[in-house]
Amino acid sequence: MTFVVTESCIRCKYTDCVDVCPVDAFREGPNFLVIDPDDCIDCAVCVPECPVNAIYADEDVPANQQDFIALNAELSPKWKTITRTKAALPDADEWAKVVVKRAELKR
Ligand code: SF4
Ligand code: SF4
User: Fold this and answer.
1) Pocket, ligand 1, Cβ cutoff 6 A
2) How far apart are CA 15 and CA 82, in angstroms?
3) What's the CA-to-centroid distance between 77 and ligand 1, angstroms?
4) Which residue in 4, 11, 5 sits closest to 103, CA to CA?
5) Which residue's CA is the nearest one to ligand 2's atom 3?
6) Predicted confidence (pLDDT) at residue 11 exceeds the cutoff of 90
7) Is 27 helix (H, G, I), strand (E, B) or coil?
8) Which ligand 1 atom minimizes the distance to the CA of 8?
9) How does pLDDT run across 19-73, given as a tens digit for each residue?
10) Is the distance from CB of 4 to CB of 61 less than 8 angstroms?
11) How much distance in Å is there from the Cα of 49 to the middle of ligand 1?
């Protein structure tokens, strides 16, 4: 099992989640975060920290977000570890209202 970051995080990247992770499992891309499934210990403490409810246990990922399970695994070895909260992207509050934004993901 692992926890997974889904579409809501794209272009928001509030990073509230990273401060609480006891094993530094978050990886940072240009406009999205992922969780490294090899490091995540399934503690769930990051879930309530996310203001846009982007984080799910893999077994609870909604049907229309299932591809993000593989995407977290694929991108986590390529991106750097992020361990501290930093400023959200400048237009994060606007993008937080957008539901469909896969096409915006930068790798
Ligand atoms: S708190 Fe949510 S939106 Fe912010 S970086 Fe973490 S998963 Fe993404
Ligand atoms: S579930 Fe726990 S270990 Fe996994 S990413 Fe969230 S805070 Fe880190």
Assistant:
1) 5, 9, 12-17, 33, 49-50, 52, 54-55
2) 9
3) 18
4) 11
5) 40
6) yes
7) strand
8) 3
9) 999 999 999 999 999 999 999 999 999 999 999 999 999 999 999 999 999 999 9
10) yes
11) 8
Residue 6 has pLDDT above 90, yes or no: yes
- Please report the atom of ligand 2 found closest to the CA of residue 43: 2
The pLDDT of residue 78 is 98
Residue whose structure tokens are 């993901």:
105
Residue-range domain boundaries for the chain: 3-80
Half-sphere exposure of 29 (CA within 13 A, CB side): 22
Span 3-80: which CATH code?
Answer: 3.30.70.20
Query: Residue 106 has what pLDDT?
Result: 97
**Strand extents, DSSP E, 7-46:** 26-28, 33-35
Report the pLDDT value the prediction gives residue 13, as an integer from 0 to 100.
85
pTM for this one? 0.97
From the CA of 96, the nearest ligand is: 1
